[in-house]
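In this supplementary section we document a worked example of the pipeline. Step one takes a protein sequence of length 207 as its only input; no multiple sequence alignment statistics are reported here. Step two produces a three-dimensional model, which step three serialises into structure tokens for compact storage. The input and output of this example are shown verbatim.
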Amino acid sequence: MEFDQLLEKIVTIDRTHAKWLNTLSFMENAGARKISACEHPFTVDLIQLKHAAEEHRHAFYLKKQIIKIDPALCKHYTSEELLAPLSTRHYLHALDIKVCKYLQHVFSLTKEELKFAAYLFVTYAIEVRADELYPVYQEILTRTSSKIMVKSIILEEEGHLEEMISQLNRFSDDWRIHAEKILTIEHALYEQWISAIAIEISEVKYA
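The serialised model returned by step three reads:
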């Protein structure tokens, strides 16, 4: 099933749509926490603080969107309130681990340097994905005259991607070679995540 077709099915049932929003919120929150975990205790810069703050805000914003569907739904991040919870929880964690292993292999980095490099490349891969995912979602929301909106997130994610490219240019002259490898890693994990969601959605009874 194509991603847009999957989203079209997701938004037709309120409970499923709420769980999708909650799943996105969970991932934004997990991303923010990982960014914060990569911060150097003394030399963290303004951009990294800004990214963590904005990802936390995205998580909050997506949670608030659920209220437009039903205030009683998805108050927390329990497995029952997420789509494909095992795959959802695995996605970012696995990406982080695989990227760290790759970077250890190709660069000579201290522990702190590795944390920062992982922040750069993992965040880059996630921003590339967000630049693909959110516009498709917004197009479906617009087409179905939904009360839900993610336009503000789209604008900020575009800005994040530009900032990550700027930082990666300073990190390494040949960063794009390594970024392509990392995008391949991310793509495989993303496909697993979407497939798990598609299986779960196929089991939902539609009127």
